Amino acid sequence: MTKHSKPWPLALLAMAALLPPAAFAQTYKNQGYWVDGSGGIITSAVSGQCWHTGEWTPALAVEPCDPVIKRTVAAAAPMPQASPPPAVAAPVAVVPAPMPKPMPDKVSFSADALFAFDKSVIKPEGKSMLDDLVQQLNGAQYDKVILVGHADRIGNAAYNQKLSERRAEAVKGYLVQKQLPIDRISASGKGETEPVTQPADCARVKMPKLVACLQPDRRVDVEMTGTKSGL
After folding, report:
1. Cβ contacts of residue 158 below 8 Å, gap of 6+?
2. Residue 33 near residue 62 (C-beta atoms within 8 A)
């Protein structure tokens, strides 16, 4: 018996005895309550209360039999939780491609800046100039670095040819020390055959002014071949 159970009146007991067994069977619709043959819930003739079966639980409460219990169960039921909003992927930062590093087509270094007069040993200030060239070549695409040494017309042609070659080789050796690929560097000398000055520029000029006048002819040309695009 539940809290609603009371002593059955004799009339009700007699009626229950006459009901077929199906009248006491529970149906899916009113599971947990005594029902009649049509599936309707049997109520007390005196109090109008519904009769619970042994399988009744608060979760099976229906109105009007147990309206308070039904409301309590409904209130205790957990509220369905809303699904969290879909995660939004953080925007991917777009890193702009580095600007191509410009590469000079050809530069010319004065031999007086790189070497002392009639010498092929690179001076400290000449090394600084070549360091700037290395920085320009690093990060640039090139196929070849062509070094060509030159000499002025002071002295004999054979000596000036050898001097121009030694100067070009000295520059090549320094660039290789700075990690430039040796197989991409060529060095040669042209002696006094390709002067920058004209014959009349230093005519009738005596030493030591002749040395200063012919200074543009003493040089090392550096030419880069290949693309100018940055890596």
Report:
1. none
2. yes
| First vs last C-alpha separation in the chain | 90
Place of tokens 């010319």: 108
* Residue that wins the pLDDT comparison between 77 and 166: 166
Count other C-beta atoms under 10 Å from residue 172's C-beta. 20
Element (H, E) at 106: strand 106-110
- Residues 227, 100 contacting (CB under 8 angstroms): no
Q: pLDDT for 198-227, tens place per residue?
A: 888 888 888 889 988 898 898 999 988 875
pLDDT per position as a tens digit, 127-182: 998 998 888 888 777 889 999 999 999 999 999 999 999 999 999 999 999 999 99
Question: Is residue 58 reached through a cis peptide bond, with omega within 30 degrees of 0 on the bond before it?
Answer: no
Helices (H), 108-231: 111-114, 124-137, 157-177, 209-213
**186 close to 142: Cβ distance less than 8 angstroms:** no
Phi, psi angle pair for 129, to nearest 5°:
-65, -40
Sign of torsion over alpha carbons 162, 196, 120, 185: negative
